[in-house]
Design a protein that fits this description.
The protein has 377 residues and is α/β, with parallel strands linked by helices. The chain is built from 11 helices and 20 strands. It has 3 domains: 219 residues, 3-Layer(bba) Sandwich (FAD/NAD(P)-binding domain), CATH 3.50.50.60; 53 residues, no CATH class; 87 residues, D-Amino Acid Oxidase, subunit A, domain 2 (D-Amino Acid Oxidase, Chain A, domain 2), CATH 3.30.9. The strands form 4 sheets. It has an 8-stranded mixed sheet, sandwiched between helices. The N terminus is likely disordered. The structure holds flavin-adenine dinucleotide.
Amino acid sequence: MYKEQTKSRAENSNSFKQIAVIGSGAIGNMTALQLAKLGHEVHIIDPLINQLIHTEEAINGSTASLGVLMGYIYKRSSGRGWSLRERTMALWQQWIDILNTQETPLKIDSPLLQIAKSKEEASLMGLISQKRKHLGVEFLSSKQVLNLGISLAKTNHGCLISYQDGRINPLELQQALYNALRKSKIQFIQETVIKLERKSSICNQKWLIHLSKSKSLLKDIVIICAALGSETLLNPLGHHRPIEPILGQVLDLQLKDKPSNWSNWPPVIVFDGINLIPKGMNNLLLGATLEPGTTVNTECLQELKSLRGNAPNWLKNSTIHTNWSGIRARPMNRPAPLLEKLEDGLILATGHYRNGILLAPATADWVSSTISKQNNQ
Ligand SMILES: Cc1cc2nc3c(=O)[nH]c(=O)nc-3n(C[C@H](O)[C@H](O)[C@H](O)COP(=O)(O)OP(=O)(O)OC[C@H]3O[C@@H](n4cnc5c(N)ncnc54)[C@H](O)[C@@H]3O)c2cc1C
């Protein structure tokens, strides 16, 4: 279905562009792939493009991510945040169909369970579940939670279960995207973009992309998906979009004792804003902290391991198998993400803060429809 849609859109637009995508995280990669499928000629530029993908040595936000997809469980039911989530969740299954190959198996592990901290939160969850039954969202009473064998403190208010939300392994996603990019006609440039320059003529505007090592490139359209690197490229052009770093730490814990019913745990439990993700027989991923800046704070890590003082004994007895951190890009004074057509041929699609994996399909879709609109003007 997606292939048919993209083919017909490309045929209709009848105007293929030369496009540069700056940044090869989940956002840049998915956007580049969608544009190439529409028939555009795409270059993707990032110094980290061909690096091995490991979480422990996370190279960008996408490889550090936990990959939790909290779409339909979102608290609001209107506004841009909800529209983006609704759209992205509808698109995710199509992306899985495209990216899931024998070489790079890819799936969404679901369901996701979000535990209510208070009576008030539980009643809000009850309202959400009534509105989103058709999307697979239900409210479970505290008794039902206990029957699932979820032995965490404060489960006595119940929880939301969302059968379509869940988790995608972000390293497998990046690998699958790279494989798909390699098979398409997209060209990789493993360099940093140091400057963007307008080249205007009477009838159109092009963009000169200055690279750290090679000759500059001239393009019809530039898409900036460079997270924290975006601001430096935008400021000289007169577009001020301050973005701040928010560090996140993740723990991979080895469990000595396991909670009863461990094998029945859902792929993601969200407890007081912390994700608990069972990994294999004996491990649990826990994360992520929210730390303004770029320096890790050991106290935040301790708070995470203790589930803010609510850790049950089996969690207290666990040991740290490994841990890592990464940086999220949060727009200042504007809501995340930054999706803007700034000028003819200059598009910003970045600053996804805590939800860049979740919103990658909706972002790629927004960029491609923005370009189609520009072509039709
Ligand atoms: C610990 C942690 C946990 C997270 N958990 C989740 C989660 O569960 N679910 C979720 O949806 N999101 C999560 N996130 C957020 C998510 O990872 C990000 O929102 C997402 O990865 C952003 O993707 P991106 O492509 O915009 O940026 P990035 O992945 O950071 O990629 C940006 C790329 O731009 C490149 N770049 C920068 N400047 C330049 C330049 N001048 N020239 C060329 N290239 C440049 C960089 O090298 C980099 O590769 C988490 C983040 C962290 C840190």
